[in-house]
Amino acid sequence: MSTAAPTSGPTSGPTSGPTSGPSSTRAAARRRRGPVRWLADHLVLVLGLLVLLYMSVPVLVVMLMSFNDPASRNSYSFDGFTTGNWTDICGPYQLCESLVRSLQIGLLATAAATLLGTLMAFAMVRHRFRGRSAANLLIFLPMATPEVVMGSSLLALFVNAGAAGFLGFWTIWIAHVLFCLSFVVVTVKARLAGLDPRLEQAAMDLYANEWQTFWRVSFPLVFPGILAAALLSFSLSFDDFIITNLNAGQEVTFPMFVWGAAQRGIPPQINVVGTIMFLVAMTVVLVGELGSRRRAGR
Amino acid sequence: MSTRRGLSGYLLLLPGGVWLALFFVVPTVTLVATSLYDPSGSLQLGYQMTGHVQNYADSLQAYSPQLVRSFVYAGTATVACMLLGFPLAYAIAFKAGRWKNLMLVAVIAPFFTSFLVRTLSWQYILGDNEPLVSFLRTIQVLGPEGHLLATPFAVVTGLTYNFLPFMVLPLYASLEKIDHRVLEAAADLYASPFTAFRTVTLRLAMPGLVAGTLLTFIPSAGDYINSELLGNPRTRMVGNEIQDLFAAGDYPTASALSVTLMAAIVVLVFVYVRRAGTEELL
């Protein structure tokens, strides 16, 4: 806190000018502090932008390295420019297989987690029942469990159930649905809690039954939240390493491929995949943003 | 209110609840049980449940340095996330104007390249032959033989980087909700900007700060990717050991260590949330 407080402190005062203070002496004091205030105002912005820069450096490095032509397997430096990695993504053994595996697991886990989580969110926001706080705790806890603990407890279960030999695609899927579920509930709940329940009452008053009310009114209104939850699930699933690694058996997902490659020497194609994922996600975000602006009539 | 009583709430809750019970509650119980198995068993021979509490003493004796290190690294990274995250969240909430959405996207954008790929790019950034190290050697911040990679600094940098968005987003959400009129009122009551910041802004940002702290501290305490890819054998964290013990098939010791990690986190979080004074969180 010690560095954040003094720099952002002075900016927290009113910025709306002299009209906000009843006394002209303070307005004068404010004018006297003008240059200091200007600097402080902009200092926070500059600091914020510097932090953003720090956050984007690794992404820029990934993009740069996707064009690297490494001199040897263990070379970490930029040895030469090539577009060969982009035309030969599947070159490294098992890279594309692991990508396909991650996509399959991501889609199946997203489908299940979104369905189960949306139902739970409706239950939590639109229904009163005993044991609500217990349910809340049960939904919250998985998010507060370190991945290695969650992964190891699932592994302990599978091993004790005599399923150690069946570790693979479906155990990964079970684990991914599990850790995505809580995030779906929280995301959909947030959207649902912001909706006026009177819209649903109005539908019922106009003789819509529960089913029609849900599909014609509630669902379309909650849909952006469900979509956001699904995207979040997919990226969580696609990106997970720790839990997956513990429950994967012989199966290899993309993060596991990267992990293995990190021990042997990293093929530059990994950076191509990282760049493509970034570009695809940014496209989705921008299209979504434009879409919502258009719907808002701006 | 449109909240309804009756069975349908339970029916909606049932499928997800069963999933959580089967694959979260039961495994947690199993993990505790496994941590008490006789360590002489194996995956092939099976394990004997002998209430072998000794596993805890053994694992603590062998791995307490890694356990302590995990909390020190995670704590340092969390403080670093606060120092970096607060100005950023503050700038987005109060200074960004119409660039707000763009800056928010920039915060989550790095998420989209894979976690592992991003962490690997730190190997390059902090590498011995790369511009950063050369520059730091030139200005004598680092000695001529100084390194960044394979040091505790690199591990904490990686943790800070990877979990920073988890600090920024809740902080931003809290700061965003602050009514500017409250700050104007503070100024009208002759609070200096610093006093206003300390007594109003910071106080109102506390829920975000608490949530952000938990969201950065808990996952970084259990993380082992950063210490594996950016550290050396002397920077191993408890997650590395748990993973390796499971891989080696020593389930009782691995489970005991895992339960110890969870218990330590629960205690720390409980004390922290109590002291931070936002009990509505738990």
UniProtKB/TrEMBL annotation, chain A:
One of its GO terms (cellular component) is plasma membrane. Residues 1-27 have a biased composition (Low complexity). InterPro entries: Bact_Polyamine_Transport, MetI-like, MetI-like_sf. GO terms for biological process: transmembrane transport. SUPFAM superfamilies: MetI-like. The chain crosses the membrane at residues 39-67, 105-125, 137-158, 170-192, 213-236, 269-288. The keyword Phosphoprotein does not apply. It comes from the Bacteria. It is found in: Cell membrane. Keywords: Cell membrane, Membrane, Transmembrane, Transmembrane helix, Transport. Residues 99-288 form the ABC transmembrane type-1 domain. Residues 1-29 are annotated as: Disordered. It is a multi-pass membrane protein. Belongs to the binding-protein-dependent transport system permease family. CysTW subfamily. PANTHER family: PUTRESCINE TRANSPORT SYSTEM PERMEASE PROTEIN POTI (PTHR43848). This is Inner membrane ABC transporter permease protein YdcV. It comes from Nocardioides dokdonensis FR1436. The lineage of its organism: Bacteria, Bacillati, Actinomycetota, Actinomycetes, Propionibacteriales. The gene is ydcV_3.
TrEMBL record, chain B:
It is a multi-pass membrane protein. One of its GO terms (cellular component) is plasma membrane. The chain crosses the membrane at residues 12-37, 71-90, 102-126, 146-173, 204-222, 254-273. The keyword Transmembrane helix applies. It is found in: Cell membrane. It comes from the Bacteria. The keyword Transmembrane applies. Its main location: membrane. Gene3D superfamilies: MetI-like. GO terms for biological process: transmembrane transport. Residues 67-272 form the ABC transmembrane type-1 domain. Keywords: Cell membrane, Membrane, Transmembrane, Transmembrane helix, Transport. PANTHER family: INNER MEMBRANE ABC TRANSPORTER PERMEASE PROTEIN YDCU-RELATED, INNER MEMBRANE ABC TRANSPORTER PERMEASE PROTEIN YDCU-RELATED-RELATED. Belongs to the binding-protein-dependent transport system permease family. CysTW subfamily. This is Putrescine transport system permease protein PotH. It comes from Nocardioides dokdonensis FR1436.
